[in-house]
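#dry-run=false #mode=assembly
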Amino acid sequence: MPEKIIGQVQRVNGPVITVDNVTDASMMDLVYVGEDHLIGELVKLDGTSATVQVYEDTTGLCPFENVYGTSLPLSVELGPGLIGSIYDGIQRPLSRLREICGDTIAKGVVSKALDRTKKWEFTPVVAVSDTVHPGSVIGTVQETSRILHRILVPLTLGDLKDQFTVVSISDIAEYSVDETVCVVEDDEGERHSLTLMHSWSIRKPRKVKERKPLSIPLITGQRVIDMLFPLAKGGTVAIPGGFGTGKTMTQHAIASWCDADIIVYIGCGERGNEMTDVLREFPKLIDPYTGKSLMERTILIANTSNMPVSAREASIYTGITLAEYYRDQGYHVAVMADSTSRWAEALRELSGRMEEMPAEEGFPAYLPTRIAEFYERAGRMETLSAMEGSVSIIGAVSPPGGDFSEPVTQHTKRFVRCFWGLDRSLASSRHYPAISWLDSYSEYVDEVAPWWEQKGEGNWKSARQEIMNLLQKEVRLQQIVKLVGPDALPDSQNFILEVCSMFKTAFLQQNAFDDIDKYSSIEKQLGMLNVILTYWKVGSAAIEKGLPIVRVKRMKVTQEIARMRFSISDDNLEELDKITVRLERQISRLGEMYEA
Amino acid sequence: MKHNIEMNKIERSLLKGREYIGAQKIEGPLVYMRNTHAVGYGELVEVSDKDGKTRTGQVLDTSSDVVVVQLFEGTDGLSIPSTRMRFMGEPFNLPVSKGMLGRVMNGLGRPRDASSLPAGEDSMNINGLPINPTAREYPQDFIQTGVSVIDGLTTLIQGQKLPIFSGNGLPHNQLAAQIARQAKVLSQDSDFSIVFAAMGVKYDVARFFIDSFESSGVLDNVAFFLSLADDPSIERTITPRSALTLAEHLAFTHDKQVLVIMTDMTNYCESLREISTLRGEIPSRKGYPGYLYSNLAELYERSGKLLGHGGSITQLPILTMPNDDISHPIPDLTGYITEGQIVFDREMYSRGIYPPINGLPSLSRLMKDGIGDGMTRKDHPHLANQLFASYSHVKDVRNLASVIGEEELTTLDHQYLDFGAKFENEFVYQRFDENRSIEQTLDLGWEALKTLPAEELQRVSEDELKEFYGG
Ligand SMILES: Nc1ncnc2c1ncn2[C@@H]1O[C@H](COP(=O)(O)OP(=O)(O)OP(=O)(O)O)[C@@H](O)[C@H]1O
Ligand SMILES: [Mg+2]
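#status=ok
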C-alpha cells in the first residue's frame, strides 16, 4: 500500500489524536499513526490540523510522531473464507492474532482478514467475450458445505450501466484469494484483473437493483416472535431491555434457529465469554433446516467491552458490509448487533473527546442520523445480478436503568418497524423470553399474512388476533383482581385469566436451555396455539353452561397442556392433536355431569 | 514549536527519565506541565516535592505543549515552583510475585509496612491487555459456596464475575468473607488464593477481612491491596488494577485459582467522576463520565479462564447502591458487564434473614453449564426454575393479601404464603458460619416446595416429582 507522511501527532487524548502540519489528506481516509502504525481513520479536517480516531490502544504514543496516509477509506476484504471466522471490529482475524501474539491482543499487530495461503476451487460461470457488469457472477467457490460463494465483478468497478467484456476466464482450478481468475475489459479498452476477493469501504452501502416488499417472515423458531410479533426477511427490529433481561439470549436463539442462510453476529462492546460461548456452541449445533453445523453459516465480529472503543464504533459497519456482500450473492442474511447502545456510546465518547457540542445526554446531534443510516442498510433486494437476497437487522438496545425513554431507544424506535420490548418484571419472575406482549409490536403482521395463507395456514392471523384480544382483556381483569381479589369475578371472566396464564406458561415462555423447547417448528407453534384456543373455546362454553372452573383446571389434560412445550418434540406432533381430542372429550364428559 | 522529527526520536531515548522543575498548574490530583520533551500517552511519571518525597503518576493527556499528569498519591504539599517531574518512558508496570500473597500493600502495590516486598518475578502493565475471545475457555466449574441461595439459585462458577449489589449497613462483608472461607470446587482439591482490593472503605472493614482470614488460617494465601477511606481518593482508581495484575500473574503464570474481592466499587466510580469533572469532560448520567462503562469493563473483563492454563480468576466485586437504587449508573453499568448479580434486600434484612439476598433480581448467567447431572445434581436446573417461579408468585399473593386481607385468600394462596415463609426462613436463611453441601441445599429446596400441591409444580418433570417430591 502506498503510504506517505501526512503530518505529525500534536495531541493524544485516549483514542482521539490531533495531527498537525497536515498537507495532503481527505476525510475518512485510513491512516497509520506513529511508529507502531496504529490503525486510524481521519474524521475531521480543520486548516492544517486533523483529527484521527485510532482503533487501537494509544498508550506510549507521543507528540511529533509521524502519521501516514493511505488515501484509501477503511475497508473490509470480501471473498471466500469469511464464513466460520471471528474478526475484531476492523476485521482483524482473531484466531490468527492469537497465533501471532498469544492470549491477549497486543497493539500494532496486523494480519489480513482473508488467508492468502488457502486455496479455493473456482468454477467459472461466464465465458470469454461474455458481457458482464459490476455485481455479475463470474464463478463460484464452495465456501462451506452449505454455502456456495458467488464471485462477483467488484462494485468498485462501477455501476449496473457499466459494461465489461470477459477477456479471459480460468477453468476449474484452485486459487488463493488474491490470484487473478478473470480479466475483463471496459468500453475504453482498459483491462481489469479480477481475483476471488475485493475490498469495499465499510461506511458505504453496497448498491442493489431495487428494494422488494417485505412479505416473507424470518422464521425464528421462537414462539412469541413467529406467532405474535413476526420479523420479515429484510426487516428491522430492536430488542431493548435492562441488564439481564435476555437480549443476548434472544439473539443467540435467533442466530441458532432462524431460517436465514447466513448469520453475521456482531458482539459490540459486550462480554468476551459470550463470544467464546458462540465459538464453543455453534460448531456443535445443527441447523434444523439443512442439518449442517451452524458455524458453516456464521460470521462473528467481536469487539468486546474491553477492546478499544473506536473499533467498537466501526464493528457495526464491518458487520453490515459483510452481510450486504452475501446478500449480493443471493442469500438471506440476518445481522445480530449486540448491543447498538455500546456503539452509540462509542460515538458519544469519541464525540466528547473531539469536544463537539453534545445534544441529549451527551450524545452527539448526529446520533439519529447514524442510527437511521445503519437500519436503512437492511432490506429485501433484487441484487445487481438479478437474484434475491435480504439483510435483516436485529439490534439489541441497552437503555440505562432499563428506561426506554432514553435517546438511543427512542431514536431506534423511529427507524425500526418491529419492537420486542423486554420487561424487567417478567425476567425476574423467570418468564423467558421476557418479551412483553403489551409493549411489543410488529408492523410486518399484515405484510407477512399472505405468506401464511399460501402455506395453507390461513388462520395464522385470526388465531393471533384472538389470543391478543384475550391478553388485552386480561389486563383489565387483572386491575380488578388487584383491588378485590379473584373471587369477585364470575367464572367466565376468571377463565380468561386462566387461559392467559396458561398461554404464558405453556406457550410464550420458551426455555433456551431445554433440548426440546429451545426451538419450535412452525407446525408445532401452530399446533400449540390451536390447543390453547381449543382450551379457551370448549372450556368457556362448558363454564357458560355451569361447569365450575376448578373442575376445568384440575383436568388431567390441563396438566398435559402446561407441559406440552417440553414433552412434545417435533417428531411426534400428532400428540398435539391427541391432546385436543382428549381435551374435548374430557370437557364434554364433565359438562354432561353438570348439565344432568 | 517546530520539532525536527529525527531530533524527536533521539530526544526520546536520551530524555527518558529527565527531570523537569516547576509545574504550570496543579488542580486536585492533576498536574499540568509545559515545555517537556515529547511524552507518551499513559507514561509512568515520578513526581517529587521540595522535601524530596516522591509519588507516582500517569500521563492522562499529552500534546506538543502541555502534558496532564494524574498523581495517584494526591498532590498535597506540591507547589508550582518546586514540583519536580520525571517521565519514565514506559507505561505503569507492577512487579508481581507469588510472594505478595500474605502481604498488605497500598493501592499501587507497594508494602504498607516498612518491610520490602520479595523481588518481582515479572513486571506487568497494570492496565493489562484485552483477552482475545478465542483464547478464553468458557467457565463451567461449579463453586460450592455453602450458601444455599447462591449455590441453589445463582450458582457461582469458577472464572465468573459476580458482583454483590448491596446497600449501606447491609452484611455484604460478612457474605463475601463467608464465600471466601467456604468456596470450594468439588472436582478439584486446590484452594483458592485470594486477592483483596479495598477502595475507600474504612479501616474496620479491612480489619474485619484480615481477622476473618486469619481465624480461618488462610492469611498466607491472601494479598491485600488497601486504599482506605483516609488515603488519597485518586489512589482508588489504580487499586483494582494493581490487584487484578497480581491476580493475572497468579492465575496464568502459576495456574492458581484466584478469587478477587473488590470493595467498594462505588467509591472507585466516584473517584473517576472526580477526575472527569476536574477535566471538564461532558458528563453522562448523574455526572459520571460517558466512558464509565468501558472503564468498568476494563476491570471486570479481567476475569475468566484461558485455554491451556490451569488457573482462573473469579471476581466478587461489592458495591453499595446509592439509595438502594439498582438503576443508579454504578449498579446499572456493572450489571451490564458482569455475568449476573447478587442483590441484597433491605426489607429481608430487617426481617432478620441472613443472607438477605432477594433471589428474583439476582441472577447467575453462567450457571446453565455448571449445574445438573454430573456437576451438582440432575434435578438442580428444574428445581431452581421452579423455586423462582413459585417464589415470584408468592410476591403476588402477598400483595393481594395486603389489599384484600389474608382471610379472603383461597386455600392455594395460603399454601403459597406458607411456601414463601418456609423458603425464606429455611432455604435462604442460614448462619454466618453454616456451610451447606449442595445436596443439603437442593433437599431444602424440595422441602419448601412440598408446601405446594404437585399440580402447581409445572417446571419440574414428572420423574423429578416422583423422586424428590414424594407421592
Ligand atoms: N429464553 C431463555 N431461556 C432461559 N433462560 C433465559 C432465556 N432468556 C434469558 N434467560 C436467562 O437470562 C439471563 C440473562 O440473559 P441475557 O444474557 O440474554 O441478558 P441481556 O439482556 O443480554 O443482558 P445484558 O444487557 O447485561 O447483556 C441468561 O443468562 C439466562 O439465565
Ligand atoms: Mg447481553
